[in-house]
Write a structure and sequence with these properties.
35 strands; about 475 residues; 3 domains; globular; Glucose Permease (Domain IIA); mainly beta; 10-stranded mixed beta sheet; Immunoglobulin-like
């Protein structure tokens, strides 16, 4: 979701009692770093961008400004713009074409005289994903009819944290990935790799053919370990989304992922190759936030795209629902599907997966009506806890007025937090559960989970990251 303003300024369950300590809240500052100029051809585009504030769930507020200089010696008319917001690894979200929308590039142009610098009005953005770069590109034509362009990647800095790593946006075709690339040890025993990425056409002139994408895992000596099947997800130019998943062959030690891509564009065939390191994930050991039989849905181990994978900070999250047999078939409810109490998950207790401090409580969001599409996507009922080692857990769609804790309170593992509800961007009563930490740049990074109290439905104790979509039993 984007907001733009032209205004200036911008282990086992421990059913123990909850303790009652208070924690401090930290204020946010504003920092800035110079832009990273790339792909410039005649136009000089520059700027700065910084985080002005960040919510506990990672929602970032960004201030930025742009300048465009025309050193070509000829008047230039801007006719096309491209603005992207990229997370670590370059996985991006398109902010559209400001020139097409308003006739100017955020107040610059569309006509730029020779040897003149024009600046944008101050820009304010807020986004629910951990943005680390703004990428902007303008294309125009000189008075002599020559094509001309300029591109810039702005590192979005945050005071007190490292400057984001260099942007991968250094060519006309970019292989954007959700990082880090990690192998997960699943409860099924598989060593699982899931890669979420995009081919990004920076020229924004593709011929609407899905790019050809390949993925190879290679050893430290460059030997191919295995090819990773790639599934096109959707063709939404200029971002072409793909998913690559595989179980890693036993005994192999992948060191590098190589992504290759080709795309037909107006200027011809664009190509890119990108290599990134592969590591083995160290998941967070914790307890299940719910007890009994629960279906762990929309999580790691699926060979198909799920709703969480669109958002890098949620790629290791799960949706937990309850199934029972109703009239001979599995169902999440019995009775009227528009009534929340018909759902087996609704009202079930949510407990702290680890000891920690309550960072935020939102339980005033009204619950949606069963599976009717009356959701409030702009605001979720949720509780966030902070734990040792900088780990956070988030429990989302909590039932309205069900929270039993407050911000600043310290809680023990197993402490009752709230009840499962249907509040916010929820299609039916369930618990969205995830863990994360802040990376070196101060942005949210998703963490895989390894509940220590899961059993199979046949009673077998399990270890590792829950393979989705599977029903498990927890204490």
């Amino acid at each position: 979701m984007r907001s733009l303003s032209a205004a200036v300024g911008l282990g086992a369950w421990l059913l123990t009692a909850c303790s009652d300590g208070m924690a401090d809240n930290a204020d946010e500052g504003v920092g800035a770093a110079e832009s990273q100029a790339v792909l410039s051809s005649g136009l000089s585009l520059s700027g700065v961008a910084s985080v002005s504030a960040m919510d506990p769930d990672g929602w970032v507020y960004i201030d930025s400004a742009l300048s465009l200089r025309n050193p070509s010696g000829q008047a230039v008319h801007l006719n096309k713009g491209l603005s992207l917001f990229a997370t670590k690894g370059g996985f991006a979200f398109w902010a559209g074409d400001a020139i097409a929308d308003s006739g100017a590039f955020f107040g610059i142009g569309p006509d730029v005289p020779p040897f003149v610098t024009q600046s944008s009005y101050p820009l304010n953005w807020n986004w629910s994903v951990p943005i680390v770069h703004e990428i902007h590109r303008v294309q125009g034509t000189t008075s002599a009819g020559r094509p001309i362009e300029g591109t810039v990647s702005l590192p979005v800095t945050r005071t007190g944290y490292a400057v984001p790593e260099p942007s991968p946006y250094t060519g006309d075709l970019v292989a954007a990935l959700q990082l880090p690339i990690e192998i997960l040890k699943l409860t099924s025993g598989e060593r699982w790799l899931g890669v979420v990425g995009q081919m990004v056409d920076m020229t924004n002139t593709d011929l609407f053919d899905f790019p050809v994408v390949t993925a190879q895992l290679r050893s430290s000596k460059g030997v191919t370990v295995t090819s990773v099947p790639v599934t096109p997800v959707e063709g939404n130019a200029p971002l072409w989304l793909f998913l690559a998943t595989t179980a890693i062959p036993n005994g192999s030690v992948p060191a590098t992922l190589e992504i290759g891509g080709t795309l037909r564009a107006a200027s011809g065939v664009l190509s890119v190759t990108r290599r990134v390191p592969v590591t083995t994930a160290a998941p967070v050991a914790l307890a299940s936030p719910v007890s009994g039989r629960w279906y762990w849905h929309n999580g790691p181990g699926q060979a198909w795209f799920n709703t969480h994978l669109r958002f890098p900070e949620q790629r290791y999250a799960y949706d937990l629902v309850m199934f029972k047999t109703v009239q001979g078939s599995p169902s999440t409810y019995q009775g009227d599907p528009t009534v929340n109490t018909s759902y087996f998950a609704f009202g079930k207790p949510i407990r702290a997966a680890l000891a920690g401090t309550v960072v935020r409580v939102i339980d005033d969001v009204p619950d949606n009506h069963g599976n009717l599409q009356d959701m409030n996507p702009g605001r979720n009922g949720s509780i966030i806890l902070q734990h040792a080692g900088g780990v956070f857990t988030i429990y989302t769609h909590v039932r309205q007025n069900s929270a039993t804790v407050r911000a600043g309170q310290t809680v023990s593992a197993g402490c009752l937090l709230a009840q499962v509800g249907n509040a916010g961007a929820s299609t039916e009563p369930h618990l969205h559960f995830a863990a994360y930490k802040l990376d070196a740049a101060g942005r949210v990074t998703a963490l895989p989970l390894a509940p220590t109290d899961l059993r199979s439905t046949s009673g077998l104790s399990l270890s590792g990251v829950p393979k989705s979509e599977v029903e498990y039993v927890s204490r």
